[in-house]
Structure formats: structure tokens, C-alpha cells
Amino acid sequence: MTVESCSERGTVADTYVAALQHDLADVPADATLVGVVRRPTSWFHAAVDENYPELGPPTNLLEAVREAEDEMKLQGLCEEGAHNAAWETVEFGEQYRQYLEESADARAALEDLEDRLERGESLALVCYENTDKKRCHRTICRDRLERTPDS
To answer: Which domain of life is it from (predicted)?
Structure first.
């Protein structure tokens, strides 16, 4: 006879590494801190429990944003304004969502995190950007993980 678990689905939140380092992060105390950074620094690794580099944006997409951002800064936009405008210019959201669907590694990473959520684990996705000021791919990951199989 098999007994099925009736545990509730875990929660998913997100924050940025500086908020963790300065004790400003608003995430559940029991959440596993999951980095979603392609090339984390040693101090980033020290702030999170684990990292899924497969969920970091592809290098070519990051480079396209940086180039567009540099151009926008030359046109007089502030750092945050240039960053957010560059996202729109390179269609970052659409390209990143496409990457999540097409990359076998990214799909496997998302499936692993989805399984952990289904088993009741709470997760907090972590990257570098303060989303009060700049857009960040981790919010796209969070939105993707918040979708239930029925939605």
C-alpha cells in the first residue's frame, strides 16, 4: 500500500544578493536561497545555498543588453533608465523566456525547482539586480515557477 503525501506546495520568492548581505531581504526564513547566476562571484556563492547557472541569461543576451545600455547612457539616460530601456530594445523578456523553453539545461533546472516546490520546499531566487530600480531575469524565473501545472 502506498501512502501519498498531502504536503502543501512550497513558496517561491526572489531577492537580490545585496539585500541578503545587508539583512534587508524579505524572504521566508526557511527558504532555500537559490542563485540563478551564470557566472557567480565567490561572495555571491557565500550568500546563497546553491546556484543554478543554467538559469542565468545566455551570455549573448547579456552582452546585447550591455551594448544597448551603454548606448542609452551615451544618450543621457541614468544607469537604471538605460538598463530598463535596453531590456525593451533587445526584447530581453521574450528572448529569455524563449531560452527557458528551448534550452534543455534550463528546462531541467526549472523542472528540478518545480519538483522541490511540489514537495513543499520554499525557495528564494537570488541574482544581483535590485528590482526596485532595474529589471531582472529572476522575476521571469519566479513567474514561471509560480505557474501551476493547471494554469
So the answer is: Archaea
